[in-house]
Specification:
alpha/beta, 14 helices, Rossmann fold, about 25% helix
């Protein structure tokens, strides 16, 4: 039986060979740590410390600002020196807690749970909530909310997104190789919440070593299995992953729970293990620092709040000044103007490229070849949607299902005319949704 997949998608240059064989290396922060209070979807966290306060690693410094929110914890010991707006990776100014690192890394004590199976469902969700676990694949949706659907008895699949389909990224790959027990433990904890669900570790088939290791690890786990996926972008997209594993389709008006599914990525599930089993909040994570401009590409376990500058230094610095710096992967990541930016719970990678090939491309007229239609995983007509967007035709854009676009960039990648289709569509989506909110 072949690997499972979805219709459409593309095969960009993977670039994973730069960092995939580099074991996870811990990086301790040297300078100040900056903790934006919006590291998640929902209401910003509310500071519970003041300037001048001493804090320890693992101490809560901001509490959730609502149900759809998440607390923030110090990842190093030191003194709160400011609570002020700071620039984040997307360019926004976000209110942040700035801690002067004392270099001692004194840490609070944690309460380990000896028997996780004895915990009630409510206790598990409360531990996940209190630890500040969010979707660490990039979305940042508070995990305790995701694990609290209206009808938990209808959840049939807990899918671990182990695809890591974005080019260059290898952090999840290293996690699966080096911390597979924690991944399986986190999956078992989540399965305790859903009596009728099966756990599926969904892995692209370009990671045969991970498939082999995890298959062996779960051979005696009746509720957990490994599903091999065809290597194709965007295989790790939530809708595409659900369809590949279950053949169930969802759209923009639905949640995965409506199809009986919950999807979490590798780093998030390991964070669930840390929260429930070890009593540890989210204070660090693994990221890939890579690209042809990086001296020693690798995978680094860093303290959240560390500046990107320090992570690049940990990777040996630049061997050549990059033309393009991207937070995230090359397909769905966003360009950064500098490195003096704090990392957050959702900072999964930094890609530094010597050439900005996209900016160098001169777009030409659409030749109506239909390639964008062939690769669109949502079965849309990107060339048409882009034209509607460029002409400001919001109603027509919506009638042609433009809001179903997942912004994966497959259309821009495949376009022989080098038109930035995804960018136009993404902009129009924002405008249409903003207009709807005003109504």
């Amino acid at each position: 039986m072949g690997s499972k997949t979805f219709k459409g998608g593309v095969h960009p240059y993977e670039g994973k060979e730069l960092a995939k064989d580099q074991p996870i290396t811990e990086v301790l922060p040297k300078g100040d740590l900056v903790y934006p209070l919006s590291q998640h979807i929902g209401a910003p966290a509310t500071p519970i410390v003041a300037v001048g306060d001493k804090v320890q690693k693992g101490q809560k410094i901001a509490e959730a600002g609502g149900f759809v929110s998440s607390p923030v914890y110090a990842s190093a010991s030191g003194t709160v020196k400011a609570i002020e707006p700071r620039r984040v990776a997307v360019g926004d100014m976000v209110n942040s807690i700035v801690v002067e690192n004392d270099g001692a890394f004194t840490e609070v004590s944690y309460t380990v749970c000896d028997d996780v199976t004895a915990l009630s469902k409510e206790e598990i969700i409360e531990k996940v909530k209190e630890a500040g676990v969010v979707g660490m694949g990039g979305a940042g949706f508070p995990t305790h909310v995701k694990l609290s659907p209206k009808e938990p008895e209808k959840i049939e699949y807990i899918i671990a997104n182990c695809a890591e389909c974005e080019p260059y990224l290898t952090a999840d790959y290293r996690r699966m190789l080096e911390n597979p027990e924690e991944l399986v433990s986190g999956m078992k904890i989540i399965l305790q919440l859903f009596d009728h669900a099966q756990g599926v570790l969904a892995i692209e088939d370009n990671k045969p070593d991970c498939i082999e290791k995890l298959t062996e690890l779960v051979k005696d786990e009746p509720r957990i299995s490994v599903c091999a996926l065809q290597t194709k972008y965007p295989q790790g997209g939530e809708r595409q992953l659900i369809y590949a594993v279950t053949k169930r389709a969802i759209n923009s008006k639905m949640l995965p729970a409506d199809a009986g599914c919950i999807v979490d990525n590798v780093e998030t599930i390991i964070a669930v293990h840390n929260a429930v089993k070890l009593g540890k909040p989210v204070t660090n994570r693994v990221a890939t620092i890579t690209g042809d401009a990086i001296e020693n590409p690798g995978n680094f376990l860093y303290s959240i709040g560390t500046s990107y500058t320090e992570l690049v230094e940990a990777a040996g610095g630049f061997k050549e000044q990059p033309e393009k710096i991207i937070s995230g992967g090359p397909m769905m990541g966003f360009a950064m103007f500098g490195l003096d930016i704090p990392t957050t719970k959702t900072s999964s990678s930094l890609l530094c490229l010597t050439k900005d090939e996209v900016s160098a491309m001169e777009p030409t007229a659409c030749i109506n070849c239909g390639r964008c239609v062939e690769v669109c995983p949502e079965l849309l007509v990107p060339s048409r949607l882009s034209k509607f967007a460029d002409r400001g035709l919001g109603e027509t854009f919506e009638k042609w299902n433009g809001l179903e676009c997942i912004e994966c960039g497959s259309c821009s990648f495949i376009c022989p005319a080098r038109k930035q289709l995804a960018q136009s569509i993404k902009t129009m989506k924002k405008q249409v949704l903003a207009a709807k909110r005003k109504k």
